[in-house]
Fold each of these.
Amino acid sequence: MTEHTSGTAPAGVELRGRELAAAIRAETAERVSAGRRSGRPRPRLAVVVATADEATLWYVRSIAKAAEGVGIACDLVDLGPAARPQEIRATLERLGADPDVHGVMLQTPLPEGASAQELAAAIDPAKDVDGANPLSLGRLAAGLAAFAPATAAAVLALLDRHGVELRGARAVVVGRSTVVGKPLAHLLLDRHCTVTVCHSRTRDLAAVTSTAEVLVAAVGRAGLIGAEHVAPGAVVIDVGTNPTPDGGLTGDVDFDAVIGRAAALTPVPGGVGPVTTAILLRHTAQAAGLT
Ligand SMILES: NC(=O)c1ccc[n+]([C@@H]2O[C@H](COP(=O)([O-])OP(=O)(O)OC[C@H]3O[C@@H](n4cnc5c(N)ncnc54)[C@H](OP(=O)(O)O)[C@@H]3O)[C@@H](O)[C@H]2O)c1
């Protein structure tokens, strides 16, 4: 953690994700090698991609590299940007039936006409390590065991790592996607937060977000959350990843405006992102029976 002071404003703590990600990877590597010592097969993750988007391909290669680092095999199943929905569905079903594959992930974006949500229903829930199958979200909402989307689980992991008290806390999640906002709202509810979910039709966003003790931004709009959106002393988690003109990334939160007001804030990059990848690997080890 790094402390920031801005003039006479109170210090805000930077909740960095890289250390937590390294700890999750180390623990996962240990589980994998203990499993191998006792004769278990090497966990295997299959990532299905159907895009030519360079940033996405870079991201999936980074998952493969991280997997290799913890002893998990990772297959990039590249169907190309012209893949038809039937082909993607058939691939997901084939991977579901393959006993050597333990985790299956469908990477977005997909070709036009292919719905990620419809296709994710073809992922075997037992292998759904990124919680994309609507069944996984339904089970999560019902309080049943399921893999949560890795990003939503990463937000919880960061809050836990930094000892943020969730029981009874007022939590506001900005964003209601099935990938981040909705599953995260359920995870926070399960941890006894009082949860409000905001979206593009929310009236007076700042009036709602400034009631939060724990504020999560998962929107995809650079700098949407400014100082006026944040209560003094709130813990703020920035899930947003927005490309900058210089080829970098920036979050949904105006970091410089908020760090002196919040008790704690995640940076972008280096906050939620690295933890998300580490959680994906932990889920794959769990799907391979290594608990
Ligand atoms: N770090 C990671 O590992 C990770 C992983 C996944 C996603 N992300 C990032 O997280 C962000 C969100 O991703 P997503 O997939 O959830 O995006 P999404 O599907 O586009 O959802 C965005 C949500 O933000 C809401 N929204 C849009 N404009 C708003 C506004 N002005 N005020 C309040 N709410 C607004 C939308 O409301 P409506 O529902 O009303 O349209 C929607 O619910 C993106 O930047 C994405 O790149 C990061």
Amino acid sequence: MTEPHFTGDKRAIEVKSVSKSFGAYQALKSVSFDIGSNEFFTMLGPSGCGKTTLLRMLAGFESPDAGSILLNGKEVVAIPPHKRRVNTVFQSYALFPHMTLEQNVAYGLENLGWEQGRIKTRVGEMLERVHMGPMARRKPAQLSGGQRQRIALARALAPEPEVLLLDEPLSALDLKLRQAMRDELRTLQRDTGITFVFVTHDQEEALDMSDRIAVLGGGEVQQIGTPAEIYEEPVNRFVADFVGETNFLDVEVLDTTGREATSARPLAFPSPCRQPAQR
Ligand SMILES: Nc1ncnc2c1ncn2[C@@H]1O[C@H](COP(=O)(O)OP(=O)(O)OP(=O)(O)O)[C@@H](O)[C@H]1O
Ligand SMILES: [Mg+2]
């Protein structure tokens, strides 16, 4: 398993040897990684690999069977969701249909006991930030999917969380909108400086947006690294297969130096072929 190697100064999230089983099925097997403050961090992996389970643990909706989770250096396993400065955006927008957009964004702030004037200012700022100011009085049913997702983002960011969790937030959108929203999300993350933990099974999305990616497979972290590291130097066949547009070639290995192997010429490909050595 790859060791986590966040090298910045401040860790927003530390996941330490977290395991979780549902009945006899072990969904997560001693998963460890760190996420830096202000990082756009993505958990990438196929369906069923435990991405949502991990996010739910960061939010506090699920507890690990073993291991610990630290937010800003503090153990949070026993702390309920509403006492963590963490918010989630889901694939389905989960907006309140009977409320206007501004009421939807204001809702969480009212629950936190913010004073009315402060709420009004913050709601206005957030709607502007996601380019939805002119539609403030509409209801969710009068919006497109992309617009609803922008409101869901505004609502989640309004209370100034330290961490925003995003569980496949773009997967209900069509391809063109998905690409536009990637840029918007990235800009939003940079402008707010909030730590984003983004979950997807779409490798292109992950490579395009992230500072670092954790590739999950079989309930384990297979590799953690920058998009370039993950794409260009997959540590094993699982990562290469899942992330790259890889062609696997059966070759005879002639020599290995460090992590590189020199192989005999496979049919119809130039020689020598260089590829990461298998572990
Ligand atoms: N409450 C639960 N009870 C039983 N099994 C569960 C429960 N929650 C998750 N699982 C199982 O744990 C595994 C991981 O689920 P999880 O939802 O975390 O996957 P995922 O990576 O988010 O998948 P997807 O990409 O399809 O959303 C799956 O095999 C799932 O069936
Ligand atoms: Mg999921």
Amino acid sequence: MKAVDTEAIVLRTAAYSEADRLVTYLTPAVGKLVGIARNARSSRKRFGHCLEPCSRVTLTYKPGTGLAWLERSQLLDAHLALREDLPRWSYAALITEILAEMTPEGDAQEPLYLLTRSTLEQLASDPDPLNVVILFLVRFMRTMGHLPDFQQCRVCRAPLAGQGQWIWQLPEGRLLCPAHRANGSSPLELDLGTLLLLNQAAQLPLTRLWRLRVRKDRRQALRRALLEWVMAQTHRPLKTLKVVAQFERLPQPDPPGIG
Ligand SMILES: [Zn+2]
């Protein structure tokens, strides 16, 4: 089969055998791509430092049935600034884990690829990395078709307006107006300003996304709820949350299906 050239971002690398490595990529043309880098552990000639998670690379591979055969790779961006900052690096690891868990294989994912590429660049430089993570999560869920309707109350269809706290009920993902707020299993209170910002984060062109700023006193609750929503889709705990928690020392969402 003919070799294919693509740009790609490394999501995950694992030992496959004594000499080989199993690498998971995000690509624009085929979404998630999983392939074998033969002899990558002994010879650095063909792959060099291109197998590190978060690295942006050019990749030549031969599609196979199931796994691809990785032929060679060249580094475009190692994201060194990210690697040298452990809290930011833990956020990057969280993002790549979510992508590896949720991106389907075989379908074109150009908007998702561009979002990820932009997110990693922003995460390295933004004064507020948590703000970047929240905006990524909203945009990611929208891109994957999993973002709940944040435009109206699920019960009465009332549009966003007025005073009072709205409720995002998890894990169902229903948005409820102040009149229909109920005691859910895990309700997140959302003020009107935050809801409008979430809708903007879902729709703005990527070049303007990072200008949005989530209110500081809303960030932890929002991030916690968004990750709970991610895990409601994957039905699996996110392993990197433990690492993130070490740097934040803050309460984390419960793993799905437990408690
Ligand atoms: Zn309502």
